[in-house]
């Protein structure tokens, strides 16, 4: 489990095509500190397993299904990525509960700068819109954010200077893809309500 608080801005140093998968090598001095084979690291919000670890770099295999359902397939050597290690039991939950299981992708639609923050508008797939509410939580490229406005096919978030400086959202431009993970609590509530209504018939 993750919290959506990005620990560092890493970099893709190699991409190897494995046919039905890809192997990424990524640099991240913070997240690789003490990393071992089999550990999990979230890369732009996607939970990946460490295959190898050497120095400040690690490799991870990404299956075709993950490449299809996330924006990781668009990464290339030199791409910057948000990195986060799983939260430790007993530590503070700084963001919200994030599984690292991407629900879909959106695109940056617009950026509106202000003196002390920036509003970013992101497209929202129709099947995810019902889980996104004003003042609710959403994960964008692995970043826990608060929804400012929830439209039928878009949402907006307000980014403080720290988020702009230390994550990929400071660099994303209109048209760029982003990974989206909606609040897991909303999905559980929906399923429970559906089961309850079905049992009452």
TrEMBL record:
Q: Does the keyword Transferase apply?
A: yes
Q: Which InterPro entries match?
A: ATP_synth_asu-like_sf, Lumazine-bd, Lumazine-bd_dom, Riboflavin_synthase-like_b-brl
Molecular function in Gene Ontology: riboflavin synthase activity
Q: Where are the Lumazine-binding repeats?
A: 1-96, 97-193
Reactions catalysed = 2 6,7-dimethyl-8-(1-D-ribityl)lumazine + H(+) = 5-amino-6-(D-ribitylamino)uracil + riboflavin
The highest taxon in the source lineage is: Bacteria
Pfam families on file: Lum_binding (PF00677)
**What subunit structure does UniProt give?**
Homotrimer.
The name on file for this protein is Riboflavin synthase
Starting at the broadest rank, the lineage of the source organism is:
Bacteria, Bacillati, Actinomycetota, Actinomycetes, Kitasatosporales
